[in-house]
Amino acid sequence: MSSFFDTKIEYLRGMGPQKAALFNKELNIFTYGELLQYYPFRYEDRTKFYKIIELNEDLENVQVIAKIRKVETIGDARRKRLIAYIYDETGEMELTWFKGIQWVVKKLLIGPAFVFYGKPNKYGRKFSIAHPEMEPLSQVQEEKSFFQPVYSTTEKLRAKYLDSKGISRIMEGLVQVAYPQIQETLPMEIIQRFSLISKQIALKQIHFPENPEILQKARFRLKFEEFFFVQLRLLKLKLTRTEKSKGQILNQTELLTKFYKEHLPFELTEAQKRVVREAFGDMKSGKQMNRLIQGDVGSGKTMVAFICILIAVSSGAQTCLMAPTEILANQHHEGLKEYADLMGLRIALLTGSTKKSTRKIIHEMLLSGDLHIIIGTHALLEDIVQFKNLGLAIVDEQHRFGVAQRAKLWAKNEQYFPHVLVMTATPIPRTLAMTLYGDLDISVIDEMPKGRKPIQTVHRYDKDRLKVFGFIRKQILEGRQVYVVYPLIEESETLDLKNLMDGYESICRAFPEFPISIVHGNMKAMDKDFEMQRFVKGETKIMVATTVIEVGVNVPNASVMIVENAERFGLSQLHQLRGRVGRGADQSYCILMTKYELSKDSRIRLQTMVRTNNGFEIADVDLKLRGPGDLMGTQQSGVADLLIADLSKDAPILTMARDAAQLLLQEDPELSQPQNTMVLRQIKNQKKHAINWSRIS
Ligand code: ADP
Ligand code: MG
Question: Where is the Helicase C-terminal domain (predicted)?
């Protein structure tokens, strides 16, 4: 159904084909509807002026009235910089330009007062604004509207006079023609219950707010709506899934009882017991399990997985466990084989490096049902891998797998979808989990096995390296092992490799008495594995590596994790890395090495790591620093497509919207009642763009 909102934007007043083409290309905006949803990313209060002494780093853009004392250009031709020193009656600051210098310099007159506008940053003790907007004070007109919308724009748009002001002018025309056409999308009952303003008013006020209160309401309404439809879609899928996806009934516990009695090497934590109960509840329910287990590194997810495997095998089904890397698959295989052997179960490993002849045998044994447990990498997904009766599929560290890949697992049992258990060591804040995995059931292992000593984390500068080396030596002499990790950023692989090699050499020079391993992404899987194994066995004392070791590897004797260039890692990555140590009974340490100058965000990341070991707390900070778009898994989930709502800040609105969606579905599961027609239409529209959520795991 085509509507007014599908009209191409080139027909809009003041637009024309050229500008429209730019909107298409630069912003991916084609229609009235899309443009109308191009919301301002902030509003400017151009009635407020700051004194230089009032500035602080937390301020966004500010206006300062000041005069210029001196202008100078520094640096060579390649990295030229223009600096203007400005002052008011309270202090001094700087303005800098890196581009368009010849053009700017002409405007920088000494004498008259200007209004400068931009984001203040602190360098040393002085504030500086890079590329400020500027206007002579004499020409500044008094602003009528106290909240001007600011739209993000691009160089190319700006070149065609589509800066924020230009976009705002076009938006004015659009809002005028669109206003009478805007229809309500939420049911009346919800609007009343949550005191929302109408869609019509919200859309107008979000672009051209009349006062702060109504702007607040407009934002609330639009955020609510955005969350509401995402949640509604997810909940509806979950409803459909639980209704339609029959699950094999796996309710036998013979092996489990035997294992508990005879072989369980430690007492399960309360959290592990709870999660086992939750998973068992699903497996015996007759509905397909689709459960995510979140648990910090070292919280003991593998044991929970094995227990579920025992239930499945007791009940006559086969099981698979898929890991993202060969190293990890190997390790899982080794760890679980020990238990499987004790229990008399047949287990095998299938990866890219499995020999052809072995592969063939494995394929046959899976098909005949002789193999109870198969551990592997992506190799498990190949079509040739067929089971007699796959009952349980476990996916470790799920963010490494694409949605489509995981969906392939589902196809491996014709009669029933296998029960699916996804394990992740990336703690996700509740708000994000509700959106990312809204159609999965979530279990959390929020307790560490007893007797673990919390890892001590410190931040050290490069100049302290000798001391750090001294510490490493002491630890190794006490019998421990040490990781030294270097960042790997894809864009400059060669540079990173050089960095790693340099580091390796300097460590070899510093510790000629110890055998040292090195592992990086450019090595063949076999060589990687060989080195990794040497370290696991304790033959080598130091493991120099890139982030290949990030995921899951377990070397209980390793007690020190050194992260080089720690400022280049994200928080969740640092936390993952730290999780490699602290797995044994000894006190463990994490040393974050950085250069001396650090950005504000880097500092917050490092301070957070030093302050806490709690993965969920870290994930929260991460979400606040980076916004949800950058977090693992969010790109493919469509969360990054949220236009106005922000998962890191709008958790309360999300909760309300989810409640509203739940209530609606309780009253009208099919959304077939007349007052919900509009809602149904909205979800259907959304679906066209979204991935198939029912197959996320
Ligand atoms: P992760 O959740 O990171 O996958 P693992 O399953 O690898 O953690 O467990 C980390 C270590 O803790 C392993 O050596 C495992 O044997 C041990 N472990 C797991 N559960 C317990 C427990 N309840 N008590 C003591 N040690 C445990
Ligand atoms: Mg693990």
Answer: 464-629
